[in-house]
Specification:
The complex is a heterodimer of chains A (about 350) and B (about 180). Chain A contains 13 helices and no strands. Chain A has about 350 residues and is mostly helical. In chain A, α7 runs parallel beside α13 and α9 packs antiparallel against α11. Chain A is globular, with a radius of gyration of 20 Å. Chain B contains 5 helices and 5 strands. Chain B has a 3-stranded antiparallel sheet with strand order 2-3-5. The chains are: A mainly alpha (about 350), B alpha+beta (about 180).
């Protein structure tokens, strides 16, 4: 959309900027709201044999508006000893990282925000910015629980960043490009032993990488089996302890928006992205269909993420680190070696 | 012939299966043709409380009810209450003699019997200790108030709850004891 518009209609830089901002805002908030309602409110409830919110709107569909309205009303409390300026910007840093991730994800042949040659590298790089926000939040709160939560988050995110990057390397080797559009094209034009009916989504060849990526995403999102940073039975709610009202809402949005963003990245890397098998990659119709296809894939991936989240109990801190360093990283290295060997042999 | 043990499903996978199965049962509780029509409000184990109400178990400890006529102001319940949430006041009255020509009796009349449900911890010691069958467990549960102080319920309110007190369970077969009656 944005790509076409800039070529079809001459637009001033500020007009493009506004269009892009609105686009990213939509791309962040819509999936986040959908994920919260569909998975957090409804799927979790059904998995626990209950109905979830039912009062606001039909089947509780307006519950999100009610929650946001409630949070906006609340007092914005800042602890007396807190580092006020850092305390205030921390949630924005976390949200910023989500916006930056989504900026790099393509939604169609011309529907992208930025089309970088080093697309996936950029996405993995900016996804670590959220760690900074979390550390800032933990440090500036002047609260021991917040600080511990922030440190745990930092340790965890650093540990799981590695397997995540290494899992992506397999895909990059196979696609032969770092560009997100290139990766989508490689999957769309690929063939499974000479049969090109559905292209070659990398989940088939990189199933190990997909598994590692999902586990790492789970940890990056601090979703339940890896929710040591917010472990409410130990740390109240970790780095978010002192946050209230609007700033807490920002953390909350960031949590689910980044779930959506990482699901979009995983869908692009492993499930073929916005491409529809049988439809030409450059077809204009894909600019409209592409986002829909990608949204469906986002829902599939985030279903896996939330299914795991609502099933498993929390890892202990040492088990969590062991899983990353002793299991996932060696496994992903083996995966890279195997991919390399097969790529050369083919 | 030795039986080949079925391959063990890892616990992690089993757990995922359980949550998925529960979701399926909640969303699609019907069987037969209607299987694919989602009906979560029938499948859920919970009840949408203000709209529909569950009947509590007959002997559930909802609230403590008082049979005022049976109370003799002996204060046993007030003294045994662990958090002293029962307030009793009474006075003596002379009552006419039981048989003609007898001496007039003195009886204790209850002026005030309040239980502060903000303090009560539902231990049931007062019910156990009452020797005159004046206190009972009632399954009534809808007595929340907007103000904390309003949770102090008086003897009229406690008396209303007597309506819901269930009969005593029959004793086991061969018991010499007669089943007590609830004085409603």
């Amino acid at each position: 959309m944005i790509g076409t518009m800039t070529t079809a209609i001459e637009m001033a830089y500020w007009q493009q900027t506004i269009l892009r901002s609105v686009g990213v805002l939509l791309a962040v908030l819509l999936p986040a709201g959908t994920l919260v309602y569909v998975f957090l409110f409804k799927m979790m409830s059904f998995m626990q044999s209950r109905l979830g919110p039912m009062e606001a709107g039909p089947y509780g569909s307006m519950q999100l508006l009610a929650e946001v309205g409630k949070w906006i009303q609340k007092e914005d409390i800042v602890p007396w000893r807190a580092d006020r300026r850092l305390f205030a910007i921390a949630p924005y840093v976390v949200v910023l990282s989500v916006f930056l991730i989504l900026a790099g994800v393509p939604f169609g042949p011309d529907a992208w925000f930025v089309n970088l040659d080093v697309g996936i590298f950029y996405i993995l790089a900016v996804s670590s910015i959220s760690v900074l926000g979390i550390l800032i939040a933990g440090w500036s709160s002047a609260n021991k629980y917040s600080l511990l939560g922030g440190l745990r988050a930092a340790g965890q995110l650093i540990a799981y960043e590695l397997p995540m990057v290494l899992a992506v390397v397999g895909v990059v080797i196979q696609a032969g490009t770092l560009n997100m559009q290139g990766i989508v094209a490689a999957q769309h034009d690929g063939e499974i032993f000479g049969w090109g009916g559905i292209g070659n989504p990398f989940i088939l060849t990189q199933i190990v990488g997909f598994f590692i990526f999902l586990v790492a995403v789970q940890a990056e999102l601090t979703q339940t089996p890896f929710d040591m940073p917010v472990a409410e039975s130990e740390l109240v709610s970790g780095y978010m302890t002192e946050y209230s009202g609007m700033r807490f809402l920002l953390f909350f949005i960031a949590e689910f928006a980044s779930a959506g963003a990482f699901a979009a990245v995983a869908a692009t890397l492993f499930l073929g992205g916005w491409a529809l098998p049988g439809v030409d990659l450059d077809a204009d119709v894909m600019n409209v269909l592409g986002p829909v296809v990608l949204l469906v894939k986002i829902m599939i991936v985030s279903f896996l993420v939330f299914w795991v989240r609502f099933t498993y109990p929390r890892f202990r801190e040492d088990q969590l680190q062991q899983l990353a360093w002793k299991f996932l990283i060696p496994l992903s290295l083996v995966n890279i070696l195997a991919t390399m060997a097969l790529k050369v042999a083919w | 012939m030795a039986k080949i043990p079925a391959p063990k499903v890892p616990g992690l996978v089993k757990g995922l299966g359980i949550t998925l199965k529960t979701m399926g049962r909640t969303m699609f509780p019907a069987r037969g043709i209607k299987t694919f029509i989602p009906a979560p409000s029938q499948g859920a184990a919970t009840v949408q409380y203000p709209h529909e109400k569950e009947t509590p178990a007959p002997r559930s400890r909802g609230v403590i009810a008082l049979k005022e006529d049976n109370c003799t102001v002996c204060m046993l319940c007030a003294r045994s209450c662990p958090d002293w949430c029962i307030y009793i006041e009474g006075h003596k009255e002379t009552a006419p003699p039981r048989r003609p020509g007898g001496k007039p009796r003195t009886v204790n009349k209850l002026d005030r019997f309040d239980i502060d449900y903000a303090l009560c911890m539902y231990c049931g010691i007062c019910v156990e200790v009452c020797p005159f069958d004046a206190l009972f467990w009632s399954p009534e549960y809808e007595y929340s108030e907007l103000r904390l102080a309003d949770l102090l319920h008086d003897k009229e309110r406690l008396g209303e709850w007597m309506q819901a007190v269930p009969d005593f369970e029959p004793y086991e077969a061969g018991s010499e004891q007669k089943v007590r009656k609830v004085p409603r």
